[in-house]
User: Which sequence fits this backbone?
């Protein structure tokens, strides 16, 4: 039996989502047929809406009718817009004890000397400033594997996943205040990341972000091998010294083995990018089901992208373990409102052209779908960008909505694995953490099968429930954490996507 042509997510919803493109005359609800061509993933009205009336999806307000909408009409930017409405933050009313799984699931991880557990084993080169980026790349290139050939400079060191240069566009011409502190917190998070066995900190020598003060401020002494190009005597000598250091530590880095460890050692970054109208129906709730399993087994999941939670934050504050945690999340929303206003922007500018082409109309709609990645467990902590959580469970991190910047903050905060949902087809990696790509719909999965790890379109096709897909994602998480390579790893994604959040003026 074929699934119905539309998906209505909640009895209160005034719209349904087209499973595939609907032509005029197609049935969408009892007594209602499509009056427009409705693209796949887009909304169709199942009842009339007067001008100014709230439009609901997920049982929540996603916008307001900017024109009268007849049943069967296409609902999108031409007749749906933002508006103010009251939110009941109801701090903690839905918080409840998490049903833990005992004994917890395990995976095969790499136990470091300090007790932490890695999912990968890289050697890293962290740059203090853009001026040292090319030299860092030259060092890493000496050990680069090609995804399109059999050349492998690390063939004698099978337990080393690679040498990674993490370069960026800042580090000088910046304020010594919060912008510098944020950059240093990000770089330090990578420098101490459990998936790195050894790390080089590479600078130019005259930049604002001096390596010595950064190491002292972030308590990195003894963790890094530091060098700067000016003191080393230029490019050639620095590259030779960097390459020599990597060769010196390769045998030690290779001397690791995987062992069975509890799932509580996993911290997973939850990401979405290139979203579409199906994201909140298939991949995001399926990842939410997997997130609940991770938390119930003692692990941690980090939701971020504050602008893409805007308008739905009242559903998270209800799950906060305390009023203080909930108020911290609301405080972030107020900061972002002021920040965008100061920059001459608005929060509803967030849905990208690709998001809108995929059926997402407002930031409210996008946020309600995006937050589904975090499942249903309690919100235990809210942290700053690149700040490591201190609690296990569901954590929220303040980041921009731009995927590479958000994921960089999550990994800097200690995430040792990334789960990334996409409806339009984002290609992404985030070294040193492996990245699992989750497709929202079957046509895109089939078109981009070389980049996607999981097809969540099975939910839309009626072949699988959200819970069943979530279980499948959870088992893949365990396998990838144990060493199974993802599609993005097969193409060596993950170093170019390093993108610290740049705030403040560039001077």
Assistant:
């Amino acid at each position: 039996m074929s699934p119905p042509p539309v998906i209505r997510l909640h009895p209160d919803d005034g719209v349904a989502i087209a499973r595939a493109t609907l032509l005029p005359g197609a049935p969408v609800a009892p007594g209602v047929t499509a009056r427009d061509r409705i693209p796949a993933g887009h909304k169709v009205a199942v009842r009339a809406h007067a001008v100014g009336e709230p439009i609901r999806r997920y049982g929540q307000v996603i916008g307001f009718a900017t024109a009268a909408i007849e049943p069967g009409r296409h609902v999108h930017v031409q007749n749906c817009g933002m508006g103010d409405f009251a939110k009941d933050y109801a701090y903690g009313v839905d918080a409840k004890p998490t049903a833990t799984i005992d004994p917890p699931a395990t995976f095969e991880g790499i136990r470091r000397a300090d007790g932490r557990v890695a999912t990968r084993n890289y050697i890293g080169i962290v740059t203090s400033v853009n001026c040292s980026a090319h030299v860092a790349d030259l060092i890493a290139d000496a050990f680069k594997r090609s995804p399109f050939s059999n050349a492998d400079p690390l063939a004698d060191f099978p337990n080393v996943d690679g040498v990674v240069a993490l370069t960026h566009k800042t580090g000088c011409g910046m304020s010594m205040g919060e912008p510098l502190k944020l950059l240093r917190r990000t770089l330090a998070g990578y420098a101490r990341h459990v998936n790195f066995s050894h790390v080089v900190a590479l600078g130019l020598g005259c930049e604002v972000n001096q390596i010595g003060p950064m190491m002292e401020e972030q308590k990195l002494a003894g963790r890094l091998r530091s060098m700067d190009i000016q003191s080393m005597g230029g490019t050639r000598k620095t590259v030779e010294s960097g390459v020599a250091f990597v060769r010196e530590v390769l045998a030690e880095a290779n001397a690791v083995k995987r062992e069975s460890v509890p799932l509580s050692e996993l911290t997973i970054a939850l990401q979405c990018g290139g979203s579409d109208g199906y994201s909140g129906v298939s991949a995001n709730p399926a990842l939410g089901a997997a997130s609940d399993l991770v938390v119930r087994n003692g692990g941690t999941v980090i939701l971020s992208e504050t602008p893409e939670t805007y308008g739905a934050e009242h559903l998270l504050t209800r799950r906060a373990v305390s009023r203080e945690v909930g108020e911290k999340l609301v405080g972030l929303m107020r900061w972002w409102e002021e920040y965008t206003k100061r920059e001459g922007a608005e929060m509803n500018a967030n849905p990208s052209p690709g998001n809108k082409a995929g059926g997402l109309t407002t930031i409210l709609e996008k946020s309600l779908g995006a937050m589904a990645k975090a499942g249903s467990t309690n919100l235990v902590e809210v942290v700053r960008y690149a700040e490591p959580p201190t609690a296990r469970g569901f954590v929220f991190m303040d980041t921009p909505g731009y995927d590479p910047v958000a994921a960089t903050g999550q990994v800097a905060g200690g995430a040792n694995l990334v789960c990334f949902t996409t409806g339009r087809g984002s290609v992404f990696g985030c070294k040193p953490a492996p990245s699992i790509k989750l497709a929202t719909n079957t046509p895109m999965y089939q078109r981009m099968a070389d980049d996607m790890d999981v097809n969540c379109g099975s939910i839309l096709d009626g072949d699988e429930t959200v819970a069943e897909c979530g279980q499948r994602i959870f088992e893949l998480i365990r396998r990838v954490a144990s060493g199974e390579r993802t599609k993005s790893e097969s193409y060596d994604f993950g170093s170019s996507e390093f993108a610290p959040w740049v705030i403040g003026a560039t001077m």
Summary: The chain has 15 helices and 23 strands. Residues 235-254 form the longest helix (20 residues).
